[in-house]
Design a protein that fits this description.
Elements lengths: L1 H28 L4 H7 L6 H10 L6 H12 L15 H36 L4 H15 L2 H15 L18 H39 L2 H8 L4 H38 L5 H11 L2 H29 L9
Helix pairs in contact: 1-12, 2-3, 5-6, 5-8, 5-10, 5-12, 6-8, 7-8, 8-10, 9-10, 10-11, 10-12, 11-12
Length: 326
């Protein structure tokens, strides 16, 4: 297993270089000049000041030279300085925003798996019943409805009409003055809408995978033999069938991480959550190339790490799989 992990980690290096090279080229080919955006908001800025900014950020160099200079900095974990004139580095900006995005994504992943897996198993067990049909309709409604529209609808109904839930941010203005229990309740109330919309829109894929995988397993001979021995349906489902049905589902873990990170751009912008997704959107609008590249690198690393975790979980769930052994 150690040799396999080492090979996979080494194999990530050319993948990261390829991803960053393509991303860097596409970003710099988009129309717009970041120095013009910086100087246009300042009436006292002169053309000479704009040229100084171009020199400062090496924007006068060819793209391949700019990429090489950027890659040398990233190799020592230095993502450079943000184009925004706030004196903050890219690392500082991402570090300030990353905890919010991690919190939302971890909560979403946990709830998605807690709801979708049992739902898929029950749909398989009660195949073609009223429960199976109505739950299928519900999860596919979440899949079909645009997430931004659903988020706005929930904000209007639960936040404005009913006044039950806050519609922006993750904390109230007086969060620091609240008690420990008050902070927990305040954070939970602010999390319900963004996490709930994210979960509702992601249930369909995983629950369908779980249903189909469980149906395949329930038709196998060893499940029939277990039932013939007089085992209860609970033991047949959770002891014999579930573990074997989990193997195809594990693939979704690696795929769900980049999907949720991409969705963070929408949720954090709509709900005004100061996370990495909102920072990415603002940086794209400002042509802040270093910040955009820093976020893309982190997203690529998380995607590759998710795929690696999925492969490791394969070996945990199925003892027959042992990487590095013949």
């Amino acid at each position: 297993m150690f040799v396999y992990l080492l090979k996979r980690l080494l194999g990530m290096i050319p993948l990261i270089i390829g991803i960053t090279l393509i991303s860097f080229s596409v970003i710099h080919m988009t129309p717009g000049d970041p120095t013009q955006l910086l100087t246009s908001m300042n009436p006292n800025a002169s053309p000479e000041a704009s040229q100084k900014l171009v020199k400062m950020y090496n924007l006068d160099e060819p793209i391949h030279v700019q990429y090489w200079l950027w890659l040398k900095k990233v190799s020592v974990l230095d993502f450079g300085q943000s184009f925004a004139l706030d004196g903050m580095s890219v690392t500082e900006k991402i570090a300030n925003r990353l905890p919010y995005t991690i919190y939302l994504n971890v909560m979403s992943i946990i709830l998605i798996f807690m709801i979708a897996l049992p739902l898929g198993i029950l749909n398989a067990y009660y195949k073609d019943t009223f429960f199976d049909k109505i739950s299928t309709v519900m999860v596919f409604m979440g899949f079909a409805v645009p997430t931004f529209w659903l988020a706005l609808l929930c904000m209007y109904f639960f936040g404005i009409q009913l006044g039950w839930l806050p519609i922006s941010g993750l904390m109230s203005y007086n969060f620091s003055d609240l008690s420990l229990w008050g902070k927990f309740v305040d954070l939970a109330k602010h999390s319900i809408l963004p996490v709930g919309v994210s979960v509702f829109g992601s249930l369909a894929g995983l629950s369908r995978y779980a249903r189909n995988s469980m149906l395949d397993v329930l038709n196998n001979d060893y499940v029939t033999a277990a039932r013939a021995r007089g085992l209860s349906e609970r033991k047949v489902l959770f002891k014999h069938a579930l573990k074997n049905a989990l193997l195809p589902i594990i693939t979704i873990i690696g795929l769900s991480i980049p999907g949720l990170i991409g969705g963070s751009v929408i949720f954090e912008s709509i709900f005004s959550i100061p996370g990495m997704g909102q920072l990415f959107y603002q940086s794209v609008m400002m042509r802040d190339y270093p910040v955009v590249m820093g976020i893309l690198v982190i997203g690529a690393l998380l995607t590759l790490a998710g795929n690696l975790i999925a492969d490791i979980l394969y070996a945990v769930v199925d003892p027959r799989i042992r990487y590095g052994k013949k």
